[in-house]
């Protein structure tokens, strides 16, 4: 099942990237206090935007085929998928709420900054547990229930998503003052 190993290697690498972005977000929230609340909020919003974009355009699309193939195979798998869907929605909601609070904090609202920090702590806890479930429980369910042919289709879909991401990156204008290679 080389295809399964390849697919999970890619998905786990992306989980590592998500954890790195969570660490960056945590660091952004810990830099400076007082008059720097606005700067901290702006930095945190930038990381939230990167995290949301990564999840929506890079990571989630890679799992669509695998999750669709898994759904309906067993009640245990369906329960896990429902739980993971609910957690993903909760994480998205928490990030959106934190981003809204951080927008208020950009103007120096310390209460909004504290609210955002609490929301982001909850988000980190949920997201960490969610990624762990994907790496263990979801991995186990896919290993039990998907065939070699289905894994080949999963890898093919992941490959297409990687190609689409490269194309999007190629079309995106470079950031001011940075070359494409320095992102």
Secondary structure layout:
Layout: H1 2-30, H2 37-70, H3 75-105, H4 110-145, H5 148-171
Helix pairs in contact: 1-2, 1-4, 1-5, 2-3, 2-4, 2-5, 3-4
User: What's the CATH H-level superfamily name?
Assistant: nmb1532 protein domain like
* Strand and helix order: HHHHH
The largest sheet is: none
In terms of structural class, how would the helical and strand content be classed? mainly alpha
Distance, first to last CA: 34 Å
Instruction: Round the Cα radius of gyration to an integer and report it.
Output: 18 Å
Under the CATH scheme, which architecture would be assigned? Up-down Bundle
* β-strand number: 0
Report the helical percentage: over 70%
Number of domains: 1
What global shape is seen?
globular
Percent range for β-strand residues: under 5%
**CATH fold description:** Four Helix Bundle (Hemerythrin (Met), subunit A)
Please identify the top-level CATH class: Mainly Alpha
Uncertain parts? 175-183
Put simply, the count of helices is 5
Average pLDDT confidence is 90
Please characterize this protein's 3D structure:
This protein is mostly helical and 183 residues long. The chain has a single domain, classed as Four Helix Bundle (Hemerythrin (Met), subunit A). 84% of the residues lie in helices and 0% in strands. The protein is built from 5 helices and no strands. It has helices at 2-30, 37-70, 75-105, 110-145, 148-171. It is globular. The two termini are 34 Å apart. The model is unreliable at 175-183 (pLDDT under 50).
């Amino acid at each position: 099942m080389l295809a399964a190993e390849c697919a999970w290697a890619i998905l786990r690498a992306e989980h590592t990237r998500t954890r790195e972005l969570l660490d960056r977000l945590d660091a952004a929230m810990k830099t400076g206090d007082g008059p720097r609340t606005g700067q901290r909020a702006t930095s945190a919003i930038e990381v939230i935007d990167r995290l949301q974009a990564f999840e929506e355009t890079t990571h989630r699309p890679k799992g669509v085929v695998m999750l669709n193939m898994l759904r309906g195979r067993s009640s245990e798998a369906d329960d896990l998928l429902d739980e993971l869907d609910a957690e993903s929605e909760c994480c998205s909601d928490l990030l959106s709420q934190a981003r809204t609070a951080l927008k208020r904090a950009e103007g120096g609202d310390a209460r909004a900054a504290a609210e955002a920090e609490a929301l982001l702590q909850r988000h980190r806890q949920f997201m960490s547990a969610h990624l762990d479930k994907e790496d263990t429980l979801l991995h186990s369910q896919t290993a039990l229930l998907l065939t070699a042919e289905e894994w080949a289709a999963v890898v093919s879909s992941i490959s297409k998503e990687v190609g689409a991401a490269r194309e999007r990156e190629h079309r995106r204008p470079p950031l001011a003052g940075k070359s494409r290679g320095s992102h």
